[in-house]
Amino acid sequence: MPPNQDLLFRSLADPTRRALFERLCREGSQTVGALTEGSGVSQPAVSKHLGVLKRAGLVAPTQDGRQTRYSARPAALAPLADWTREMQTFWEARFDALEDLMKRMDQ
Amino acid sequence: MIDTATATRTVTVERDLPHRPGKVWRALTESHLIGEWLMQTDFRPVEGHEFAFTAEWGTVKCRVVEVTPRAALTYSWDADELRSTVQWTLTEIPGGTRLRMEQTGFRSDQPMYYGGARQGWPRFLDALETVLAGME
Fold first, then answer.
1. For the domain that residue A69 is a member of, what is the CATH number?
2. What interface predicted TM-score (ipTM) does this complex get?
3. A2 touches B: beta carbon within 8 Å
4. What does the radius of gyration of chain B's CA atoms come to, in whole angstroms?
5. Has residue B3 been placed in a domain?
6. pTM recorded for the entire structure
């Protein structure tokens, strides 16, 4: 498995990080302070979790004056759904090749 | 689609072919013919037979699950982290055969398999599906 996918899966395996990510998806970008409120964990813990999510490409920080805001990057989730898309494309192409073969078998 | 209880997913391809089921069956089960449209293989239509598909990009490990001549063929299909089953169904139709391929499985590296928080995943995967649908 590519290292970035491993990071992705590991980062989302933690319920606190998942809750932070889901909140950013639902509510849009937030500061670390706002995310800490209602998270049930300390601000340093939230910062640490955001760091893990950032390395996995799931969140991105932007500087807003003196504050850092984090926003969700849901496109980073694509590998979770990828195998069906890959296989759909694969099988469509294989069916094309099968039809070609069946025509050749007629001759 | 996603089965939220197990996070298994299914890929389906179905086509009507202007060929008799017997001929389609040959293309699905004779290894030299399979090699021409799918991948090189040591497949034999014997239940329990373990075989492999090989391509430039790697190997798929398989085991024959069900063989019903000219009607149904099922084998397991394991490639990297993917654990799946490929099920072929042949139905005679006027002028030919309806060929259906259904692949069902899951990736063993899906986060739910890291243990813990299993209850949270179905909801999350639902949300994920919505997000990905919106990206297209």
1. 1.10.10.10
2. 0.75
3. no
4. 17
5. no
6. 0.60
